[in-house]
Specification:
Elements lengths: L13 E5 L4 E5 L8 E3 H12 L1 E9 L6 E6 L2 H5 L18 H10 L3 E6 L4 E6 L12 H4 L5 H7 L6 E5 L15
Antiparallel strand pairs: 1-2, 2-3, 4-5, 4-8, 6-7
This protein binds zinc ion (2 copies).
Length: 180
């Protein structure tokens, strides 16, 4: 298990806990050490250390029938390596964390900001590499069934890992990381 070191004592590490009011991360040496940080701060520390893992797999475009790559991050999956509490979190992928989505739009040509006429809102999604067709509304997040087995049951996502985005020197907005 990976861990985030306590900032107050020498040998403590933060463990996700919940109180009547909220979830937080507290030092494993409690009650000797009472250091706590928020969940958002915990996730920020993980992201600063690890960057964001980007997973890629192939699906068949519903329009042109060609094989196209779809891309997403799965923060919940990577956070589980730090604390089992993150197993309860729903999939956190493309479309869920705006500052990461913005980096993806800049970096990958098949990630686009789409304007929906029905809801009059913009959202981020994968488009087909060949014909530009949208690959479903937040497709990879809501229904990543092509890789669902590996993601949820087998925990074998490594074969889909294709990039890692460093967040060094990038502003990380806490409120976007309030995910549990
Ligand atoms: Zn401590
Ligand atoms: Zn296509």
């Amino acid at each position: 298990m990976k861990f985030i070191k306590c900032k107050q004592c020498n040998d403590g590490k933060y463990v996700i806990r919940s109180s009547e009011y909220s979830n937080f991360a507290g030092c494993s040496n409690y009650p000797k050490c009472k250091s706590t940080i928020t969940i958002a701060e915990y996730i920020k520390k993980v992201l600063e250390k690890e960057g964001v893992n980007i997973y890629k797999w192939k699906k068949q475009c519903p329009k042109c029938k060609e094989g196209t790559n779809v891309i997403s991050y799965f923060l919940n999956y990577d956070l589980e390596k730090y604390d089992n509490a993150f197993e309860m979190v729903k999939n956190i992928g493309i479309g869920d964390v705006p500052f990461i989505d913005r980096i993806l739009i800049e970096k990958y040509k098949n990630i686009k900001l789409i304007r929906s006429k029905t809801i009059n809102e913009e959202y981020v999604a994968n488009v087909c590499e060949h014909c530009g067709c949208l690959q479903g509304h937040n497709y990879v997040v809501d229904d990543p069934h092509e890789i669902y087995e590996e993601l949820i049951h087998e925990k074998k996502m490594e074969k889909y890992l294709f990039d890692n985005i460093s967040l060094e020197g990038i502003f990380i907005p806490y409120k976007e990381l309030n995910i549990i």
